[in-house]
Design goal:
Helices cover about 25% and strands about 30% of the residues. By secondary structure, the chain is of the alpha/beta class. The chain folds into 4 domains: about 60-130, Immunoglobulin-like (Sandwich), CATH 2.60.40.10; about 135-200, Immunoglobulin-like, CATH 2.60.40; about 205-280, Immunoglobulin-like (Sandwich); about 285-475, Glycoside hydrolase/deacetylase (TIM Barrel). A hairpin with a 5-residue loop joins strand 13 (about 180-185) and strand 14. It binds zinc ion. Zinc ion (ZN) binds near residues 292, 293, 344 and 381. Zinc ion (ZN) binds next to loops.
Length: about 500
């Protein structure tokens, strides 16, 4: 019994021992594994670290995908490249081109090599038309159309940065009181513009006073209004509806106002005033615009237009030159047609008393024929004070100045010379020269030449100055006091 007990104790011991041995073996195995494994891992980590340190990198500034508007110049946003602590930015090779004139996708490649590794990055540039086309309307965006009238398209123009002119692709639709213009370009960019139509007349009529805002009338003479024109956007025949009020008393010198008032069918009113200056003929401050040597096409006719538009009368000392129609127009429009000379040739005109009168008779016949009048107002070529006549006939002017008066003529020299017969060649210079010499304490008999283009162009300024500064414009008549210079021959 005991023996048996002992034997079972041994068995247990053996088993325990076996277990311990097995455990010790296992531990030895683990140790071996770690001894091999840890260094291996370390090596791998080191290699990876080395790769990371030696691997270059490129960093792109800006987006990797960029949209570039068609036509705009592509600007590189830039990049940086480095490895470890080395800057490689200027070693980066950039390739690839962007055609900004062609819609599409473009690739830009950035490459860098640090001696160990090559790294590549790309950026995509998309050239696209994202801009809407532009429709520009001719005329206003708000249009007023006369009541009862149709809106007439005022036109438009459409341009696009990519498609260029798209005017004929614009769709125009009328909807209620709107005109709607739409347009889609080839890249499907859309534009819409509207125009509003108001069927209303908001514009007042315009009154145009014939003869201008200031006109002249003389004591004892009937005042004749030069009339007016009415222009209106919607209504025709408003002329009859103008109310004219105000009186001019031509028996009393003074300044009178005439008012012109008109209302169009929509109730828009307009009012204008005209000043009528009533004075004696020949009072101080009177301006006599006198023109010698004409008429001439291209200058005299324009001067006549200006005088008409300003309601001013002037005096024309004519020659035998120029068209008869202009002489007729001078007369018909109320100016004084006077005599200068037929030929303006000093050597023949001033050869003798007879020669002078022969010349004068010739130009008188022309004037009388055209005007139907007995023309008696004259101006000597070169004026009564001329010395050139001495060359041809000594003492001639002394005889002539007496002789013409005996024969019923009135001769007029001047006391204000415009400088347009050879000294000044510029409209402003002529006008300023006249304006500078104007005086209120005398009449201003201005010598000018209607054959000169710069005189033609100076007239407006002279008249404007005269009107604004209280001068009175008049023409020479037989009642006008003669302006005589000192005779020198
Ligand atoms: Zn002359």
């Amino acid at each position: 019994m005991v023996k048996k007990k002992r034997s079972s104790t041994n068995e247990i011991y053996d088993k325990e021992k076996e277990k311990i041995e097995k455990r010790q073996n296992q531990n030895k195995h683990h140790e071996k594994f770690w001894i091999i494994c840890i260094p291996t891992l370390c090596v791998i980590l080191l290699i990876l670290l080395a790769i990371l340190l030696f691997l270059p990198s490129i960093i792109l500034k800006g987006d990797k995908e960029v949209t570039l508007e068609y036509g705009k110049v592509y600007k590189e946003k830039g990049y940086t490249a480095s490895y470890f602590n080395h800057n490689l930015t200027n070693k980066v090779k950039v390739s690839g081109k962007v055609n900004n004139k062609k819609i599409g996708k473009y690739k830009i490649t950035y490459k860098v090599n640090n001696g160990f590794f090559t790294i590549k990055k790309t950026r995509t540039v998309i050239v696209a038309d994202t801009k809407s086309p532009k429709i520009s309307l001719f005329g206003d965006k708000k249009v007023y159309v006369c009541p009862g009238k149709e809106y007439k398209e005022l036109g438009f123009r459409a341009v696009d940065n990519y498609d260029d002119n798209l005017t004929n692709k614009v769709k125009v639709k009328k909807y209620l009181n709107k005109v709607i213009y739409t347009l889609r370009d080839k890249s499907h960019n859309f534009t819409k513009v509207e125009r509003k139509i108001f069927y209303e007349d908001i514009e007042k009529p315009e009154i145009k006073l014939n003869g201008g805002d200031i006109v002249y009338s003389f004591i004892g003479e009937e005042y004749k209004d030069l009339g007016y024109e009415v222009i209106d956007n919607c209504d025709t025949s408003l002329k009859d509806k103008v109310e004219v009020t105000g009186n001019v008393d031509t028996n009393t010198a003074g300044t009178y106002k005439i008012t012109y008032k008109v209302k169009d069918n929509a109730g828009n009113t307009e009012e204008k005033q005209r000043t009528v200056i009533v004075s004696e003929h020949g009072q101080d401050g009177t301006i006599y615009l006198t023109f010698d040597d004409g008429p001439k096409d291209g200058t005299t006719n324009i001067i006549l237009d200006i005088l008409r538009d300003n309601g001013i009368k002037a005096t024309f000392f004519i020659t035998n030159n120029g068209p008869d129609e202009l002489v007729k127009r001078e007369f018909d429009e109320g100016h004084t047609v006077a005599l200068h000379t037929a030929s303006h040739n000093y050597s023949t005109v001033y050869a003798s008393v007879d020669d002078y009168f022969k010349d004068l008779e010739s130009v008188k016949q022309r004037a009388d024929r055209i005007t139907g009048e007995d023309t008696k107002i004259i101006r000597f070529p070169g004026g009564s004070s001329n010395t050139i006549s001495r060359r041809y006939s000594m003492g001639l002017m002394s005889t002539l100045t007496e002789e013409v008066v005996k024969r019923g003529f009135h001769y007029f020299d001047w006391n204000l010379y415009s400088g347009d017969a050879g000294e000044l060649y510029d409209a402003d210079a002529v006008a300023n020269n006249v304006i500078r010499q104007l005086r209120k304490d005398r009449v201003n008999m201005i010598l000018m030449h209607d054959i000169k283009p710069y005189t033609r162009d100076a007239i407006d300024k002279i008249i404007k100055f005269g009107k604004e500064n209280g001068y009175v414009f008049d023409k020479i008549t037989m009642a006008t006091e003669m302006i005589k210079q000192k005779v020198n021959n």
